[in-house]
Records
---
Amino acid sequence: MNLENIRYKKPGTFEETRFEKIHNVIFKDSTEPSVLIAHEIANLIKEKEAKRKPCVLGLATGSSPIKVYEELVRLHKEEGLSFANVITFNLDEYYPMDKSNIQSYFYFMHEHLFNHVDILPQNINIPDGKVSADDLYQYCIDYEMKIKSVGGLDFQLLGIGRTGHIGFNEPGSHFNSGTRSITLDHITRVDAAPAFLGIDNVPRKAITMGIGTVMGAKRIVLLSWGNNKAEIVQKTIEGDITSEVPATYLQNHKNTTFILDEGAATELTRVKTPWLVTSCNWDESLKLKAVVWLSELLNKSILKLTDSDYNNNGMSGLLTEEGTAYDLNIKMFNRLQHTITGWPGGKPNADDSNRPERAVPERKRIIIFSPHPDDDVISMGGTFDRLVEQGHDVHVAYQTSGNIAVSDEEALKFAEITQSLCPNCDETQSIINFFRIKTDNDIDSEKVRKLKGLIRRNESLAATRYLGLNDKNVHFLDLPFYETGTIKKNNIGSEDVAIMKDLIDKIKPHQIYAAGDLADPHGTHKVCLDALFLSIEALKHNNYMNDCWVWLYRGAWHEWESYQIEMAVPMSPDQVLKKRHAIFYHQSQKDGVMFQGDDSREFWVRAEDRNRLTAKKYNDLGLADYAAIEAFKRYYF
Ligand code: F6R
């Protein structure tokens, strides 16, 4: 794609966008569009510079624009893009908030952009989180006036919150609101909690530009990545304008483009149910998706769907291709039926033509990659158990140490026990001393991180032993990208990939299981998956990789849709219990853990609910009634 593709076009102009009220473009992932948007901004800066005019940019913080800033920095360093004529206004800042605080948006902007380009410090405007309460009202009016005095915003970059906020304009914000102080919505605070190491530390208030301020921009680009945003993106683009979803006000802006990745676009009508929008090219997976959707919509099992059910729901084209509902139903029912197996490593001596896995080799070498030291049992504990029981050579590789998710109280408990056993141990004493003086802003010392990592390591070993695995088959990769001591992780590096590649090359697996869960709120799963994909890319020319099948499970936050599942492993009630016990070994992650998100259920409850729901969905489609099912989708390379 090029810049022309993302230029504003009136939404609803084409048949496929007829449900849409905001122009949007969908990309596979965030990398390519972030570069394109950075180039749009760079061109604007240069155009303005040629006219000897300032370029006024409205900027956002958060995870969405990070790659745009990376590319702008690259353009400055490698291609001489100058920011000398740029004036910036940031959307918002927490209140109260000190500039030096690593959670401040002031800090974020300097770290990601301003420290690396030649912008004049006096041209940077970020709401000041330290203005006194008495001065705040006037301060906001002045911020607004300052934007007007430089000619208004030429370009506004936005992200969107799950509440539908833009800037920090939370639900209830008025369409003509200006810069002001605002109380943050609970969901927004939950989403910010990881960065603040717990919701209690997240400020309750913020200063934000208003909807009116943003709407005054000549061009607006909103970026949204990942499944987590899919629902709010759909409401914003297709719903009615309402103060309950403040981003819907953008429907009235004449030059707004939403840039989405496939995850964020999943709920749009043209993506979710394209047959309701226009005529489709029906490949086998789209047929299954449509039939499952129809069955769920009408609350009827697949084999009971009739010709008129299809005709009345936008699928007459499909029936014309397939003949009758009867033929189509049976075909799709069988397809789903063939995903079910109690032999995830393949059934020995069985005809495998309609099974998800190969019968040979009978005893497979298998690596289960687990981003954190517990995703293996949470997401595929039942399948893990079967693979071991059915005699495969199973290895587990924990990709990160997971140290950041161990609370100080938990770590102190272990340090104190160790000290009781070994009163003269200096290392333990230094850890205990560290906790005595630690403040909210302090990053854990290396020793503390080591202790926290060890806690998770030993919990993992307890769980894998319980599932019958030998310790020598358990690998702790401690990928370096994760070891920053803070929530913000480094980008994936060649060292990470090298570690993954080494293990794969050593084991030469017939099966790899990995977390394909891109809705992980902190992005660790995504980086771990990227590291796997890069490793596979580098190794795929080796002969043994021709025999390697990759299966993706989803982590604690999300499940595959029924139509996406390519292997469904049923669990008996006893296996559900065994899985629960395996999860229990991860004691530091029980009882209100640090990174719970907005789902207050413990991980074992989430896992059970999810596996039960997958089984129920299969049953509702007309398949057998299982207690629980774990689901996988194959990754082809
Ligand atoms: C940030 C801001 C917010 C974020 C939104 C999305 O300055 O104003 O509206 O854009 O909360 O945050 P991320 O990008 O972290 O998903």
Note: The longest helix spans residues 446-466.
---
Amino acid sequence: MARRPLVAANWKMNGLKGSIAELEKIIAGARSLTAVDLLVCPPATLIAAFAAKAQGTPIAIGGQDCHAEAAGAYTGDISAEMLRDAGATAVIVGHSERRRYYGESDGAVRAKALAARRAGLLAIVCIGETRAERDAGRTSEVVRTQLNGSLPDDSERVAIAYEPVWAIGTGLTPTRDDIAEMHAFIRERLLSRFAKTGRDMRILYGGSVKPGNARDLLGVDDVDGALVGGASLKAEQFLAIAGVYRTP
Ligand code: PGA
């Protein structure tokens, strides 16, 4: 089965009610993009309105995090079931900002991925090394550990986002060779863990993907799309990135 690419927008803590205008532009521009799945992950406050607006269009709406439990005394948290109820069909889990600012461990990320699937959502599991880990030659080891600890026991409704932490929001990106090496390494790990179904899992690249470098980065073998932060806040830029997959 050929993997259908996925380009996902991670809006992080950006966006107010008026931002629906940006979503409308994305919806309008997405009509010509039939060879790629498009996902917009706004802050939780906007999910219901975005999902209503995107209904019947090719744009899917996702969350940026979820709690592992379905409900309970967890002040301020949002469950995967709540995201689903609001109209989301996917959720990002284990983003490096969650791992760093909230101390999310691989085990916690795995529990969230399981919760996402329980609720019927696609789980986009984020992994990636820090600058210090790369400089110390530990990239593969770190990524292997994160994969081992963060993934559910089967591959159903799971995508991976390889996001080197030092490339997020910095304008820095790995070389094409470095990306190829890591995506091939991740693919090999997925195949050894999930056998044949590991071949169908999408491995997105994330970290400073922009219209100017998207063709280069997304053209690398085993790169099945992108998780886009900063550049996804502007419809034109997000569409230009996804436009890499425009059918000629
Ligand atoms: P960036 O963020 O595109 O702004 O580097 C990517 C991400 O954090 O998912």
Note: The chain has one domain: 6-245.
---
Amino acid sequence: MHSETSWYCYFRKEVVPIHQATVNTACQTMQYGSSCFSGIRGYYRDGKVRLFRLKDHYERLMSGSKILGFGFYMEYENFEKVILDLLAVNNPKQDFYIRPCIFTEDESLGPRFDVPIFDIAVYMIPLNNYYEPNKGLRMMISSWRKISDAAISVKAKAGGAYLNSSLATTEAKSCGYDEALLLDQNGSVTEGSASNILIEYQGTVFTPPIGADVLDGITLRTVVDLLRSEGITVRYEPIDRSMVYSCNEIILTGTAAQVSFASSVDSREINPKSGGGPGPLCRKLRKMFDD
Ligand code: PMP
């Protein structure tokens, strides 16, 4: 395996060392955040590499390009080949993360998407746990509201839309918390900065409706399927702030976050009986997820 800084990436239709994959500062992706991206987990287990739901990530990425009108499309077979070529050259021997990104090098001044040069770049990095697995996240309800899909697609994983996540996490960390929880314009709970949320409230598992300014999370879909396969009811319903403060457990799901949990929100302890560790729902989910 190459060292992290020398992992190869896919850029301008070639496999090149990452330091060669650079764009002009004037390009629209750099100036306006004109991109959409994906994040895929790779696991290294028993000497073999396994990718988590590659096709689902591909489909969401192409859907993002379509929603935003980028005019970029790639067949699954070609996408998969790029990933396999990168795996062959980087030869990872630990868990890792793959980041495909559709971007433009167009240098025209006015922000617009109907430019002909959208392309895909893909890089990989080693990644173990993004959050400490046995330490609950201390979350803060952000003073920044979640962007509405009426303003920027929240389903496309658009680069520029992540300014919203950056504002929220930066604020949370500067206030001494680990993560932000974002409410929508009406005060309903949406998601974390890069994770979906589920809560166990009065014996039922709730997650916000998919149409409620949240990303259609691939880890969330997996977790909901796992819970339902165990006969546990999951309801896609609006969640308000009081439900979050008074629920029994908070689970965060995401490619980076995997199955994580919150130990407090705005300094109100969640599930104190677990002594700061994961609660029963989180433990059950992690076990099912690992299997
Ligand atoms: N919400 C947001 C805003 C995200 O960036 C992510 C990470 N992709 C998620 C939720 C979780 O989605 P997934 O499980 O598909 O990674």
Note: Residues 39, 191, 194-196, 215, 217-220, 253-255 surround 4'-deoxy-4'-aminopyridoxal-5'-phosphate (CB under 6 Å).
---
Amino acid sequence: MKKILSILLVLSLITVAVFANGGSDKAAADDGQYKMVLLVKSLGNGFFEACDDGAQQAVAELGNMEVVYMGPSQSTAEGQIEIIETLIAQKVDAIAISANDRDALIPVTKKAMAAGIKVISWDSGINIGGRIIDLAPSNAEFIGRQQYQLIAELTGNKGQIGILSATSQATNQNEWIKWMYEEAKKPEYADMEIVEVVYGDDASDKSYREAVGLFSKYPDLAGIISPTTIGVLAGAKAIEDEGLQGKVQLTGLGLPSEMQHYIEDGTCVQMALWNPVDLGYTATYICEALITGKITGAEGEMIPAGRMGEIPVGADGSAVMGAPFVFNKSNVAKFAAIF
Ligand code: RAM
């Protein structure tokens, strides 16, 4: 709630500042601060709030940036498009987007770029042509395969597996799920199968209902993979409420701060994630480097990213942060204090 109130306050201040700026070309020019918006899939998600903490750390280090956190109330492309249209009118300097749809945002982000705004995607990508750089938290193949390996370890390479995802259009989850299916083809998983992918839309109540739906549809369900922080938390609650601990195993991508209880009581023995603070921090450094002309986004360039070192720009503007952590009883408390 406090976070929402502070966002509203910042937004109203920005609106005042932008209108006060009248017809000048760049909203940034007057106070020497470049204005960047960290546009997330939806508000009310602790993962993205941790990313914003990282963005604000970068702001403090860089000294020439101002980052405003924004997102629609639900994880939809329409909601993001509406916000981007407003930001074009306000002439912000950069928009860093975790996209709800890899293609649907392209026309509006192209319009933003034509207006001189630096657009990058991060976390959940926009397709080539709709952004300059796409920052992935980690290698998508690695993440997807690792998710399947984590559940296989828990079910002893056996049984029916359900996937509880975010939205059906989410670039990041869809890419990871594709690699889970690839991993599942290996001979060691012959006694295991993915029975269904369901979508909780990164909303806690829908994710919870979808998890319960999997339990009733598949009475022999051995495990759930939920590659979304909202989904894995809802899945853990559902398993606990239905008394299915030990019968239905759970893994996914979760925030240690939200999942500590379920990891320590064995509902979710192991899960993975990268550091979201570092992700928001890196996205901010990339925007600053693009705005100030340190980089253009061409393959082979090195992005100066503060404490994250230098990150190379790969083919088609792709950039990758680092390897995910795996959390279990032995380390969850330590990480829970950080994100
Ligand atoms: C949710 C969002 C986000 C994803 C994490 C793992 O918070 O879907 O995009 O990266 O989970």
Note: The longest helix spans residues 2-20.
